[in-house]
Amino acid sequence: MEKRHAGKVAVISGAAAGIGRAFAVRLAKEGADVAIVDINDAGHTLNEVKATGAKAAAFRCDVAVPDDILRLGDDVEAAFGRCDMLINNAGVFPSRPFADIELEDWRRMLSINLDSVFLMSKRFVPGMRERKWGRVVNMASNSFGQVAPGLTHYIAAKGGVIGFTRALASELGPEGITVNAIAPGFTRTEGTLAREPNFRGLTSEQLYGILAERQAIPRPPTPEDMAGTLSYLVSSDADLITAQTFYVDGGLVRAS
Ligand SMILES: NC(=O)c1ccc[n+]([C@@H]2O[C@H](COP(=O)([O-])OP(=O)(O)OC[C@H]3O[C@@H](n4cnc5c(N)ncnc54)[C@H](O)[C@@H]3O)[C@@H](O)[C@H]2O)c1
């Protein structure tokens, strides 16, 4: 693979599993050094990334906890010197009917899926500003653009991510920093496989198939599909792409 990210340092949250692991492996194969961030043990990802020959380290961090992020920032700078690409991928998506969502559930959802994007950006964007170059990519969800029952708190958080992405892009554009979001379709990962039963009692396996049939391109999205889009967004080919949300869902969300 072409080493198009050589010399760059990527910080990827939620990289122990699923889409985040695919992100880490893809950017490493293309030459980036990778800081793997997760609340859980990320040894598996670390081994995969190191096998590519890239420089890598794993950091335990709960992205909902401000002090964890401050410590992470210091640790990443000690290990790698800087962060050029911030990938805010960590997220949770428990499905629950609106009637059963308590304020505590709502706040937990927003803190992990939205506050974290703010806090990580606060910590890592200043260094990008100093160097006049940077990439921020936030994980949204295509559930923002389609009917998805049982996810009011999740979709509110992801809608916030899309709004934050646009607004931050407007501020940072003149400083050489792009800010974009990826909105995946329902993708086979540890997280979606663990969420049983799904909406209306469906298993995840059933749901991958049902949604794929409604897509323009009728196959379930994979973590590697997301990684291809990420690689483009952080590359110099995307120098003029900012404030965008890329729906990577086979055309499930479309104008008509
Ligand atoms: N998989 C999908 O179908 C899908 C669809 C739309 C959006 N997304 C979004 O993509 C992202 C990744 O999803 P996934 O399916 O790979 O999830 P996953 O559950 O497979 O992996 C998520 C990773 O994030 C980590 N994590 C969770 N909470 C954390 C915290 N507080 N601090 C640090 N790490 C934490 C987990 O330990 C895990 O390693 C999420 O933001 C999710 O909302 C996923």
From TrEMBL:
Keywords: Oxidoreductase
Domain of life: Bacteria
Gene Ontology molecular function, alphabetical: 1-phenylethanol dehydrogenase activity; 3-oxoacyl-[acyl-carrier-protein] reductase (NADPH) activity
Assigned EC number: 1.1.1.100, 1.1.1.311
One Pfam family recorded for the sequence: adh_short_C2
Residue ranges occupied by any Ketoreductase domain in the UniProt entry: 8-185
Principal EC category: oxidoreductase
Keyword Protease attributed: no
Transmembrane segments: none
Family statement drawn from the similarity comment of this UniProt entry: Belongs to the short-chain dehydrogenases/reductases (SDR) family.
Name of the molecule in the record: 3-oxoacyl-[acyl-carrier protein] reductase/(S)-1-phenylethanol dehydrogenase
Organism: Novosphingobium fluoreni
